[in-house]
Amino acid sequence: MKKVTIRIMPKQGVLDPQGKAVQTSLSALGFSDVKEVQTGKLIELFVEDYQNIDQRVRDMCDKLLANPVMEDYHYEVEEVART
Amino acid sequence: MKFAVIVFPGSNCDRDMYHAIKHVLGMEADLVWYDNSNLENYDAILLPGGFSYGDYLRSGAIASASNVMQHIKAHAEQGKAVLGVCNGFQILLEAGLLPGAMLPNKNLSFMCHYEPLAVANHKTCFTSNYEKGEVIQLPIAHGEGNYFADDETLSALKANKQIVFTYENNPNGSAADIAGIINRQGNVLGMMPHPERAVERLLGSDDGVKLFQSLIQNWRDAYAVNA
Description:
CATH superfamily of chain B: Class I glutamine amidotransferase (GATase) domain
CATH superfamily of chain A: Phosphoribosylformylglycinamidine synthase subunit PurS
Helix content of chain A: 25-40%
CATH class of chain B: Alpha Beta
Pathway (chain B): Purine metabolism; IMP biosynthesis via de novo pathway; 5-amino-1-(5-phospho-D-ribosyl)imidazole from N(2)-formyl-N(1)-(5-phospho-D-ribosyl)glycinamide: step 1/2
Distance between the termini of chain A: 9 Å
CATH topology of chain B: Rossmann fold
Protein name (chain A): Phosphoribosylformylglycinamidine synthase subunit PurS
Distance between the termini of chain B: 9 Å
CATH architecture of chain B: 3-Layer(aba) Sandwich
CATH topology of chain A: Mth169, Chain: A
Oligomer: heterodimer
CATH class of chain A: Alpha Beta
Strand order of the largest sheet of chain A: 2-1-3
Order of helices and strands of chain B: EHEEHHEHEEEEHEEEH
Subcellular location (chain B): Cytoplasm
Number of strands of chain A: 3
Structural class of chain A: alpha+beta
Number of strands of chain B: 11
Structural class of chain B: alpha/beta
Helix content of chain B: 25-40%
Pfam families (chain B): GATase_5
Largest sheet of chain A: 3 strands, antiparallel
Largest sheet of chain B: 9 strands, mixed
Largest interface: A-B, 11 and 20 residues
CATH architecture of chain A: 2-Layer Sandwich
Strand order of the largest sheet of chain B: 2-1-3-4-11-10-9-6-7
Radius of gyration of chain A: 16 Å
Order of helices and strands of chain A: EHEHE
Subunit structure (chain B): Part of the FGAM synthase complex composed of 1 PurL, 1 PurQ and 2 PurS subunits.
Shape of chain A: elongated
Number of domains of chain A: 1
């Protein structure tokens, strides 16, 4: 079985109000050394082994998991024990 | 003229939309559950506001991947009218029927109040009963209405007069003050403000009525000369 970890982040230059709010909040707690915060999503998929896994994952990201207008995604595939 | 109000799990403005069409405009309307794929008998499809699928993943994303979207796309390709309001607009963006995407409001707050809007294009089948540049009052109610598109898309929207409504006092950070846009063909409109919640003066504003009247009048002119 494969584990696919997909990291989805706002595109460069796209406003990330959540990240901005977290930065402001950290600053209020005294962590003023934090100059920028970016927030995103992490999605884990557990899938049966198959060929063309890269193409499948990219299809899933393009069709549903990420919105290419405002988000970029990266993913990693690793072997995991069947549970 | 017969309207379908598509109801997704989590829609919550479906009954307001139904009320506006059925009781204020006096037209035929059905609440259509999203897994009912037969939309052939409807002249216009309305995607109401709400929180379809709890806004999981991204607002409108899960609804945009449901089977009914294929039927809505087919309906739109025939040139028939589609109106998405609030979450309905977000669904149209996610489905690719309109360009761009929605970000969280710039101030991160859910905002629920009347906003003045300018009718930026009164030559569409949704806005022909408004005056050019008319300023109207419609309620907004959203947390993610901060319209985003790349510069190329924004230029194309402007050049093709696809920006239909703009905010007078941009409340959410939307690019180019955009409150509503239409597709190139002119039959698919998405907007964050709620025309269906502004159909009776007693409840604050009836500025939304002309949008539905425009749609009905244009449909009559096109399809039902003797109706």
